[in-house]
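Residues determine shape. Next comes a sample protein:
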Amino acid sequence: MAPSKKGDIKKVVLAYSGGLDTSVILKWLQDTYDCEVVTFTADIGQGDEVEDARKKAEAAGVKQIFIEDLQDDFVRNYVFPMFRANALYEGTYLLGTSIARPLIAKRQIEIAAEVGADAVAHGATGKGNDQVRFELGYYALNPDIKVIAPWREWDLDSRTKLIDYAEKHQISVPKDKRGEAPFSQDANLLHISSEGKILEDPWVEPDYSHILTRMVSPFDAPDKATEVTIDFKAGDPIAIDGNALDPAPLLARLNELGGANGIGCIDIVENRFVGMKSRGVYETPGGTILFAARRAAESLTLDRGAMHAKDALMPGYAEMVYNGFWFAPEREMMQAAIDKASERVTATVRLKLYKGNVMVTGRKSPNSLYDEDVVTFEEDSVYDQRDAEGFIKLNALRLRLAGKPKG
């Protein structure tokens, strides 16, 4: 239930980017609720100058301003655990936006406790998934918190009204926001999403020259392949080309390598949790490389039963992350099983990156379950091929019984 207006809210923590939408929300909260607003800006590798948000918040009279570099926390405690599950939503989406929301929600709730706020607010619209992700996170971490979602309350229901409100209150409007922006973008260290406007027609081909910001088009990528090795320990990447890197710099380096080779762009239509379909263009260069490399590492180190059981968990796990249930007990239960399986995944994987493609060219591991003596096509003394006859007949028994004529 949305809180009522003036008097009910004394202090609110706003997830604040410093962009047009949240700058308008900041002023609207001050006017509508007559409350103190605390701003929180998370640097999760979006590439913007986050200090600009501080200047804008100060200009709006905000006294408590939180700007925090959460890139390592984001990759170490959210991206990497999710990648241990090889999570793909609807078979294509690496969940770049989805996985950022629980971290922001968690830190917002923590700040609310620190400053004595009785409410939190976000800038997600009433049509999208992010409102659900933020608020499920809020309520999981503080069941009694009050939540303000301006897009579900105010009458600024168009870009024109939003800009008019901003100009009326001397809120700076970026030049590219005047008129109709070609698409909206959301970015973090894992990915960049582009949605809306010219992309709303799923038949219209994207103009990648105007959309892509983290990578070149595969058509413009170099004609020579780039070779790279990735070392894994207990399921997580720890080094590139033999150079040890912390989680955030490692993902940033994979983004550079993938972006330069046109890797990681997808154009998809997905099913939003709220019920509608949406079309988006997503850039996930580093994550796309990491996904392929992890699968190669697992192919060598995981037992068939463990791998297949883990793969069976993945669709449900991915859906939970997409829908915003990161803090749900069932996700944590699945994570425990996934992490147990990942203990064996210590390996080195060699890949070639070429014009949008990630090609695995080699893999090795001290935990390898691959035995050349068993799989060889040459003569061996460890596998008796005659054993296969009984194996096949036992597995065929139920099929033979079902196929017998009745009568």
About this structure: Residues 300 and 370 are 6 Å apart (CA to CA). The chain has 13 helices and 14 strands. The first strand starts at residue 11 and ends at 15. Residues 11-69+98-181 form a domain with the Rossmann fold fold (CATH 3.40.50.620).
